[in-house]
Structure formats: C-alpha cells, structure tokens
C-alpha cells in the first residue's frame, strides 16, 4: 500500500479555500487565548523549565518509577497490566470486558486507544464503544478520525454537526445552534452513561509516589463514565508518569493554559484505587515508547503532555488540517512521533514543517520540536527514504552550482522563459510552487547583473 | 518473559543520562486579594462565588437560583441546607440519575484557577459530583473567606495527602464544551451551573 503523503492530503484540504481560512482562524483564536494565559503568570518560563526537567528526570529513571507506580497502585487495590504493543493492549481490554460480559462501553478521550485502534477492535467483537467527549462523539458518528488531539472536531462546521445529529439523534433539521446541539448530545450521552457496563478512560498523569491517576476533562465525561458502572479500565502510555503528586502542580498549571487558554480544566480528577465495590484496571502500554527513550535525538518527544499547543500555532497544521498528517497525533509533535514508529510510511511529515520554530516557543515542556523535525529530515535522507522529487533536483543543483558559468547561463535562460512562456507551461504538475499561488514575476536582470551595474555606477560617482 | 519484564528490560537497556529532579521551590504567584481573584476567575469559567456568614444567607442566595427553587430532587450533604434525598440509603449510584440540585462540601479553593478541591472520604457515591443538573459547594472558612483559598496549585498540593483508596478532584466551574465551532456551551454532561459559598464561621 502506498502511504498517503502530506502534500497530496493537504492539497485536498486547501482546495476549499474558505474552509482552510476558517480552520486557520479557529486555531489561531485558541493560540491567542493561550498567549493571554501565559502572560498572566510571571513565572511562565520557570514553569516550563521545571516541567521539562521533571519529565527528563522521569525518563532517566523510568523503570524504577514504573515499578514504584505498580507497587503503590496495587496497594490501593487497582490491578496493573503491562502491554508491550497495541495488540496486547487491545487483548487485555477485551478479556476484562468479556469476563463481566460487558456489551456497552463508554470511553473518554484517549489518544492511546486511538493509537491502538481499540474501537474497531472491540466492535469486531460485538462490543459497542461510545466516545463521550462531544468532539469525539461527533467524529465517531461521522465515521471519521479526530483531526486534533484536544479539539477532535475542530475541522467540522456546525451545519455539518447539525446534519450528523439530525441523522443519528433525530434533532431538528437545519437547527445549527451549538446550545441546542450540545443539549441533544447531553441527553443522548446521559442515556449511554446510565446504560454502560464499563468505562474506559485515558490518563493525563500517573503518579509513581502514590499509585494514582489524573484525568482532565472539561465536560466531566470521564467521571460520569467511570462512576456509574463498576469497572473502570484506564489505558496509560508509560510516558505519562510523574514522580510525585506535588509535581502535578506544575503540569496542571501548564496543561489547560497551553491547550485551550483556560486556567485549568473544569475537572482534574485524581483516582486512587477503585471505588468501593468497584474494580480499577490500569494498563501500562509501551508500544514503541521504550525505544524512543534511548535515542538522544528524539527522547525529548517523550516529554509531551498532549496539550495540542504546537498544533494550534503551526502555520502548516492550521492551513492543511489534522487529517492531512494521516496519523493519530498530527501536527509538529505527531510529525516526530510518527516517523519514529515507521519512517518509511511517514517520511513526508518532517518535510511539511517550515522550521518557523513557533511550536518550540509554545511547548509547555520545552520540546525542541523544530530541531527534532530537522533531525528527522537528515535521518530520512540517511535511510535513503527521500523521494526522487527531492533528491534529483538537489543533485542537479549541486552540479550546476559548482560551475559559475553554467549557473549564470541557466539563470538567464530561466528568467527569459519565466517571462515569455505561456501560463500552461509554467503552472503544471511539475512545479509545486505554482500550486495555490502565483509565481512572482521574473526580473529582467539577475542579482549579479544588478550588483555589477550598481558597483560601476558607484565607481563612476566617486 | 512476561511483557512486564520485557518492557522494564527494554527501558533498562537504554542509555539515558541521569537528570536530577529540579525541585518545586519557586517564587510562585500570590494575590493581594484571594477572594476577589478567585471570584473573578470563577466568573470567567461560568461559576459564581459568594461570601456568607450564615446558613440563612446561603438559603437566601440559593432561592434566587431558579434550578434550586424549582428542583424536585435535591441532595444536600451540608448541614446548612436541607435536601430531600436520603443519600445514605442510596445503594446504586444509578438512582441518582435524576437529581436536580446538589449542595456539597468542598475543602478549599485555589485563587489562580477558580477551582475547589473535593474528595469522596465522606461521600458514598462520587457520581454526585457529576450527575446533578446543578451544583453548589460550601467551603468552610475559619475567620475570613481568604483563609479557605490558597494562591496557587503548589500550595494546593501541599495541603493534600494521598495514600488510601480515594477519589478527589479539582472542579473549576460548571461542565462545559466548545467542541462545536469553538462556541462555549455551559452544561456538557455535568452540572449546568455552579455556585461556591465561602461560609465564615
Ligand atoms: S509537543 Fe509540546 S506543545 Fe505539542 S502537544 Fe506536546 S506538550 Fe503540547
């Protein structure tokens, strides 16, 4: 199967100019809210430094902290499972559900379960999984993937939500009022919460010192989902660990401010052990994370707390849409994480980056995102995975640049042709720079010629 | 080898330079007027804060909340306000599905983000924090309301201890979503309104 590449997928998104602008503005609006929050705390940079150090420290002692977490969580009455990959994770979830004969599951947002493709797996086994975050429910009903890790339905217009809800929840046709639509979803999802046999959640932070888990939402869907049924399954990537409960002060101050520009999420729930009479199962998932740990170039990406700020600020993400990345986690951080799993499949992603550095500026845990993206480009070249469209012109250019007369000659010919050729000869498939934009008019003289004229004029003036 | 051992081994095989924990001491933000700051942040996230001296004042305020006045099923876990549900007798949390209003105790508040801390030490069904249509918290304040409010999250965690099976949460305002075209809608799954009363004693 040929992997879909970012430029082709992005072209589809950009083809609808109005929507691309609308998407761009919606995300920029979130980015501005984040800025207002960042400046409201004089200690913002100190918080980022501290968060980054805590995460690096945790990664450097990961095995010890995992064992400590397991010990403490078990003491509290939780059952800890370990999954080396997505398959094992899915099997564990399935067997837990089958043990109690669960047929209807409610799930709160979890990028990890997306990464493992848990929903289709459970559905194949006859289990209904309902995503309960409103944005996730919208994309689920539309049979799409989330396009953003914090704002899963940021690419969808309210008219489209209205159509989807009309079809599935029988809301009034043509009623596009977000209040009305949210109310309909509230009533629909409350029925699902009450009828659920088990609740699945992701985890924002796991605490080694206490064996506890923290889950953050604005809607309260994770809490409703796990406080009615008896079984709570928490799916947790091993990088979500922090050493101590007090460390959360740093991360909870940064997370929502960076994500949506709120001072904190509405609900920051701390689960320590199962509720009385209930069961709590925690699945620790590796799925490639431990390999990343050993890479000095890319280890930093394990610090990510999935706030989405790098997506909201990225000029490429904002204009090309989350789906164009073809990954569970899109945007700058996704373009680092995806090739570390499969660099051949995702080789186009590091090249989507403009290296503007905006992601690095906003990242609350100070991941040097644009440096890592540049590293990945070199890595992909080393692995011989560059497409010919990048290698052949590079070789030709290098050959041409080594010979000044050839360089001058080609430049002169090029300028003449650019000014005299008909449009169709310039704007075609082989010239990606002519897509979605007008080429600048080619000047009559080269820089060199202009420079020489300027110099001789200066000489005659003196 | 079990997956557990494989994962741990794979981690231990990686060469990662040791990095020290940075510590959490810092010059973290403080507010001259914690009550005012808390109230304005809570208002910005859709809640309302009140400083009161007596249960009469709480009742007077609550009666102005239409959902309380019209509420049929009211759970109160605070002595100051009477409810009409025998919470202790509720066996299955599903029975709380149609609660209109709940008045619950909270332990303390955080100025920087408008959150209150609650836990289920004396609350049999934790779903009561999430399932009622409307919610009010009463926070005991020793002498003045500011005593019940810490400045920032670092101070908040200094007050908390974990170690036994327990649920606890920071709750900041009513439930909300902005998943439809970034329009903020209050009342996603949980409470549609949230009042916080600081009760001076
Ligand atoms: S890389 Fe940084 S900015 Fe991007 S999602 Fe992760 S923590 Fe947020």
UniProtKB/TrEMBL annotation, chain A:
GO BP term, pick one: lactate metabolic process
InterPro entries found in the cross-reference section: 4Fe4S_Fe-S-bd, 4Fe4S_Fe_S_CS, FTHF_cligase-like_sf, Helical_ferredxn, LUD_dom, LutB/LldF, LutB_C, NagB/RpiA_transferase-like
Residues annotated as domain 4Fe-4S ferredoxin-type: 294-324, 344-372
Signal peptide: none
This protein's record includes keyword Repeat: yes
Keywords (A to Z) from UniProt: 4Fe-4S, Electron transport, Iron, Iron-sulfur, Metal-binding, Repeat, Transport
Domain of life of the native organism: Bacteria
One GO molecular-function entry: 4 iron, 4 sulfur cluster binding
Pfam families: Fer4_8, LUD_dom, LutB_C
Protein name, entry field: Lactate utilization protein
Organism whose genome encodes this protein: Blastopirellula sediminis
TrEMBL record, chain B:
Superkingdom, taxonomy of origin: Bacteria
Pfam families xref list: LUD_dom
Residue ranges constituting the LUD domain according to the UniProt record: 88-198
Protein name as catalogued: LUD domain-containing protein
């Amino acid at each position: 199967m040929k992997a879909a590449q970012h430029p082709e997928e992005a072209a589809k998104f950009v083809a609808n100019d109005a929507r691309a602008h609308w998407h761009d503005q919606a995300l920029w609006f979130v980015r501005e809210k984040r800025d207002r929050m960042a400046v409201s705390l004089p200690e913002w940079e100190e918080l980022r430094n501290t968060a980054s150090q805590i995460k690096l420290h945790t990664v450097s002692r990961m095995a010890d902290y995992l064992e400590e977490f397991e010990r403490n969580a078990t003491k509290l009455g939780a059952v800890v499972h370990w999954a080396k990959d997505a398959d094992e994770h899915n099997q564990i979830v399935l067997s837990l559900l089958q043990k109690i004969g669960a047929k209807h599951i409610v799930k709160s947002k979890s990028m990890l379960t997306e990464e493992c493709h848990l929903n289709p797996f459970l559905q194949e086994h006859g289990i209904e999984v309902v995503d309960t975050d409103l944005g996730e429910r919208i994309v689920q009903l539309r049979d799409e993937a989330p396009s953003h890790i914090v704002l899963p339905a940021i690419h969808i217009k309210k008219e489209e939500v209205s159509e989807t809800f009309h079809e599935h929840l029988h809301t009034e046709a043509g009623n596009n009022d977000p209040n009305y639509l949210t109310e309909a979803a509230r009533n629909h999802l409350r029925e699902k919460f009450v009828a659920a046999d088990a609740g699945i959640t992701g985890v924002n932070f796991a605490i080694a010192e206490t064996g506890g888990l923290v889950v953050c939402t604005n809607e309260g869907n994770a809490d409703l989902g796990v406080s009615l049924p008896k079984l709570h399954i928490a799916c947790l990537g091993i990088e979500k660990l922090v050493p101590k409960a007090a460390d959360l002060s740093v991360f909870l101050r940064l997370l929502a401010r960076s994500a949506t520009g709120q001072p904190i999420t509405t609900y920051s729930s701390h689960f320590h052990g199962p509720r009385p009479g209930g069961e709590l199962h925690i699945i620790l998932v590796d799925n490639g994370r431990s390999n990343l740990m050993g890479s000095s170039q890319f280890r930093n990406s394990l610090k990510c707390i999935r706030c989405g700020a790098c997506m909201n600020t990225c000029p490429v993400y904002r204009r090309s849409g989350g789906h164009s990345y073809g990954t569970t986690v899109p945007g700058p951080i996704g373009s680092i994480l995806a090739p570390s799993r499969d660099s051949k499949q995702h080789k186009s992603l590091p090249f989507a980056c403009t290296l503007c550095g905006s992601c690095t500026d906003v990242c609350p845990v100070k991941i040097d995102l644009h440096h890592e993206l540049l590293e990945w480009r070199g890595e992909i070249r080393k692995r011989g995975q560059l497409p010919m469209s990048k290698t052949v012109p590079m070789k030709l250019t290098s050959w041409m640049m080594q010979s000044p007369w050839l360089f001058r000659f080609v430049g002169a010919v090029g300028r003449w042709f650019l000014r005299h050729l008909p449009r169709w000869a310039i704007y075609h498939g082989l010239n990606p720079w002519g897509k979605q934009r007008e080429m600048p008019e080619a000047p009559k003289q080269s820089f060199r010629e202009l420079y020489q004229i300027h110099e001789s004029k200066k000489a005659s003036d003196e | 080898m079990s997956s557990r051992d494989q994962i741990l081994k794979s981690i231990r095989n990686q060469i990662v330079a040791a990095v020290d924990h940075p510590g959490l001491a810092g010059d973290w933000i403080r507010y001259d007027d914690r009550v005012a700051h808390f109230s304005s942040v809570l208002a910005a996230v859709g809640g309302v804060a009140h400083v009161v001296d007596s249960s009469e004042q709480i009742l007077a305020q609550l009666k102005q909340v239409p959902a309380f006045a019209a509420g049929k099923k009211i759970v109160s876990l605070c002595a100051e306000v009477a409810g009409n549900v025998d919470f202790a007798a509720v066996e299955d949390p599903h029975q709380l599905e149609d609660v209109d209003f709940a008045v619950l105790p909270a332990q303390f508040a955080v100025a920087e983000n408008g959150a209150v801390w609650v836990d289920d030490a004396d609350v049999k069904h934790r779903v009561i924090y999430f399932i009622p249509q409307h919610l009010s918290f009463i926070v005991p304040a020793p002498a003045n309301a500011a005593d019940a409010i810490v400045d920032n999250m670092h101070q908040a965690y200094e007050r908390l201890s974990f170690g036994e099976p327990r649920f606890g949460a920071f709750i900041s305002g009513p439930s909300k979503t902005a998943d439809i075209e970034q329009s903020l809608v209050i009342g996603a799954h949980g409470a549609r309104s949230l009042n916080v009363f600081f009760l001076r004693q």
